[in-house]
Amino acid sequence: MEIIIEKMGMSDVPRVTELERQIFSMPWSAQSFETSLRSKDVLYLTAKADGALAGYCGFFQSFDEADIMNVAVREKFRGQGIAYRMLRELMELGRDRGILRYTLEVRAGNKTAIHLYEKLGFKSVGIRKGFYEKPREDAVIMWTNDRTGESGYC
Questions:
Q1: What CATH number has the domain bearing residue 50?
Q2: From CA 145, how far away is CA 95, in angstroms rounded?
Q3: Hey, which residues are catalytic here?
Q4: Does 138 lie in the same domain as 75?
Q5: Exposed end of the chain (fewer CB within 10 Å): N or C?
């Protein structure tokens, strides 16, 4: 199986929105993705396996920092390193845009995702109580300085 990672385009929005609805309890709308893709401060990538959407991720940039959002991999493609590859590529492209620090929130109970982010150099720096709804859950706040493995939290 060949995995191709590329920038998300408007033509990807219907499939991304469908996957978003399958994975998240409070999914983004197609309009939210379309608006994001029009912003110069947002970058989204897709991963396609033999032409089928396997996953997507993106960030919102603010100066030399970026907030990583909407990391998703279709269930049948999980455990194959796709999220890791997408995020590494996203962070590499971010470096080209001058991004030095990344942050994200992850459900406190999502140990698989937390482990993935730690492999990419993220460190837990705090908790946002009750951040997630449906079901209500705390979020772990994580930061990294590029991919150096150092906490980027000040």
A1: 3.40.630.30
A2: 10
A3: 105, 117
A4: no
A5: C
